[in-house]
């Protein structure tokens, strides 16, 4: 068996742990393994190197991805897909492991229509927005990074008795905002999944002040329907004259050493991807649901919307007393 592996889209801490696990599991079966550089770009331009167990030494603790990654527009064209197919044929690749998010899986499904090798996806995105797995690789690290930052901001917010808006990543999903907000005792969160009335948000913040709160933190997911944190801040100021500070956490959420949780998830899923290929499956993403390793058709990972936990959502307001 000749298998190739790539990372695609936004990098996520734990991708290296997944690469390591998949490469070594495949080598245990005496498969030939190729690493593709820069995601689909490398597939189009034939940037492949053979990998062995030693090529993945001492990477489990590092963020980023040793294979590099990219968002590749060319792969969305027929010519790009055909060129990728030619590369796979030239190297005699029979199976492809793709670590990425829903954009990467859209690409995988398009490729599957013209190439008859096996394709297995691994959920690698800090956003946690893939249906078919409770958690995605990188999410736990990103939440912990955000919590650490918000805790620091709370110190200065409390000292100066200020109101802060903190923007976290999540273009279409509020998972990071919800868990980072709950873990750091945020007064409010705003997520793309729920329409928050700004007047009501302000009213609740003022009520908190009347109850003796001396600082307030509003965690905003970047994909919020009211705009980014600066826009929301301006709207609140126009609406109610509140003074505020804005912090955009940005790409620090994507970097750093993966947490043990992310390393274990990545290690399990990397090995399981190889098991699934050995069973002859294709067109699926591997995941973990309620502690069980599972597979789900790639299309379903984005066609079914993964919901935020309603119980956690309720707790944000219940605990803001
Ligand atoms: O998809 C992961 C993610 O980190 C999103 O949360 C964010 O909106 C996006 O990537 C940022 O992408 P880029 O690094 O290309 O600006």
Structural account:
By secondary structure, this protein is of the alpha/beta class. It folds into 2 domains: 182 residues, Rossmann fold (3-Layer(aba) Sandwich), CATH 3.40.50.450; 116 residues, Phosphofructokinase domain (Rossmann fold, 3-Layer(aba) Sandwich), CATH 3.40.50. 41% of the residues lie in helices and 18% in strands. The chain has 11 helices and 11 strands. The strands form 2 sheets. The chain has a 7-stranded mixed beta sheet, with helices on both faces. A 4-stranded parallel beta sheet has the order 7-8-6-9, with helices on both faces. Helix 1 links the parallel strand 1 and strand 2. Helix 6 crosses helix 11. The longest helix is centred in the middle third of the chain and has 22 residues. The model has no long low-confidence stretch (mean pLDDT 96). The structure holds 6-O-phosphono-beta-D-fructofuranose.
Question: Can I get a quick summary?
Answer:
This protein has eleven helices and eleven strands.
Q: What are the SSEs and their pairings?
A:
Blueprint: E1 2-7, H1 15-28, E2 32-36, H2 40-44, E3 48-51, H3 78-90, E4 95-100, H4 102-112, E5 118-123, H5 139-160, E6 163-168, H6 175-183, E7 188-190, H7 198-210, E8 216-221, H8 229-240, E9 245-248, H9 260-278, E10 284-289, E11 292-297, H10 300-303, H11 310-318
Parallel strand pairs: 1-2, 1-4, 4-5, 5-10, 6-8, 6-9, 7-8
Antiparallel strand pairs: 2-3, 10-11
Helix pairs in contact: 1-9, 5-6, 6-11
Largest pleated sheet: 7 strands, mixed
Taken from the alpha-carbon principal axes, the silhouette is elongated
| Fraction of residues in helix | 40-55%
Count up the helices. 11
Instruction: Compute the number of structural domains.
Output: 2
CATH topology of the largest domain: Rossmann fold
pLDDT under 50 segments (min length 5)? none
Our Rg estimate from Cα atoms comes to 21 Å
Lateral arrangement of strands in the main beta sheet: 3-2-1-4-5-10-11
Average predicted local confidence, pLDDT? 96
Which ligands does the model contain, each kind named once?
6-O-phosphono-beta-D-fructofuranose
The tally of beta strands, per DSSP, is: 11
Distance between the termini: 59 Å
Structural class: alpha/beta
CATH class of the largest domain: Alpha Beta
